[in-house]
Amino acid sequence: MKLKFSKMHGLGNDFMVIDGVRQAVSLAPEQIRLLGNRQLGIGFDQLLLVEPAREPGHDFRYRIFNNDGGEVEQCGNGARCFAKFVRDQGLTGKSRIEVETARGVISPEYLGDGLARVDMGVPRFKPADLPFLADAEALTYALPLSGGDCEIGIASMGNPHAVQLVDDVDTAPVAEVGPEIESHPSFPQRVNAGFMQIVNRGEIRLRVYERGAGETLACGTGACAAVVCGIRQGLLDARVTVHARGGDIVIEWAGEGSPVIMTGPAVTVFQGEIEL
Ligand SMILES: N[C@@H](CCC[C@H](N)C(=O)O)C(=O)O
């Protein structure tokens, strides 16, 4: 089977994007792991699959696979690339599209010049939404780790996030603590582990150890989760610039019950064809 694809990235969080509308695509987890291998395959953090919508009124279905082969619910940087991809490939002429994901509908809008804005939906904070094992809902939780407790906020952006405050992201123990949080028994479906440094009420620095992909140069849903946790804790204003290692995005959130709006770049690196 020959598969056409685009290699894209959002702030260095990189993707193989496949048109599953005009091509018949069925990939086993081991094929995704091989394609995602940076030495033996194409290399990516996530594989994004564009499919026809299942429900009337929606434009597409958006499926996301981490490079460990597992299918997940959401990807924010990918959603911006998705919006650019369907326009560039002529799959739609609309700039704002309604896209089905494994956890509800999101609305990406391609603004042109490599910029996209996405209504990422309403964040959820109940432990069962992630899921996270806790007796009751709280703003922060003590998470026992081998080196002692760490304090986390939790949020679901469709996918699960645990966010901790650090003094300096450059010296935060992301590689050591990230995997322990990712696979912590309190998160039965594992979790994305965010490390947030508050610069001021409108700016944070962020690193994310992603579930199923390791630390990436940026994580869009991680940025949304960090900002909403920071706003709920009274540390941030409603509009925040997030500095990731791969660049900046802007996250806006008006508070409980409102959707999170993410604005940032989407880049196509090259297009290719691979024999599977
Ligand atoms: N890079 C993404 C998130 C991808 C999925 C995540 N690793 C998970 O397992 O939930 C983003 O930009 O949001």
UniProtKB/TrEMBL annotation:
In terms of InterPro entries, this protein maps to: DAP_epimerase_AS, DAP_epimerase_DapF
Gene3D superfamilies named among the record's database cross-references: Diaminopimelate Epimerase, Chain A, domain 1 (3.10.310.10)
The EC number of this protein is: 5.1.1.7
Q: Which reaction does it catalyse?
A: (2S,6S)-2,6-diaminopimelate = meso-2,6-diaminopimelate
Q: Where is the active site?
A: C75, C219
Q: Where does substrate bind?
A: N13, Q46, N66, G76, N77, N159, N192, E210, R211, G220, T221
| Pathway membership | Amino-acid biosynthesis; L-lysine biosynthesis via DAP pathway; DL-2,6-diaminopimelate from LL-2,6-diaminopimelate: step 1/1
Keywords in alphabetical order: Amino-acid biosynthesis, Cytoplasm, Isomerase, Lysine biosynthesis
Q: How does it assemble?
A: Homodimer.
Give the protein's biological function: Catalyzes the stereoinversion of LL-2,6-diaminopimelate (L,L-DAP) to meso-diaminopimelate (meso-DAP), a precursor of L-lysine and an essential component of the bacterial peptidoglycan.
Q: Which HAMAP family match?
A: DAP_epimerase
- Recorded protein name is Diaminopimelate epimerase
UniProt lists the gene as dapF
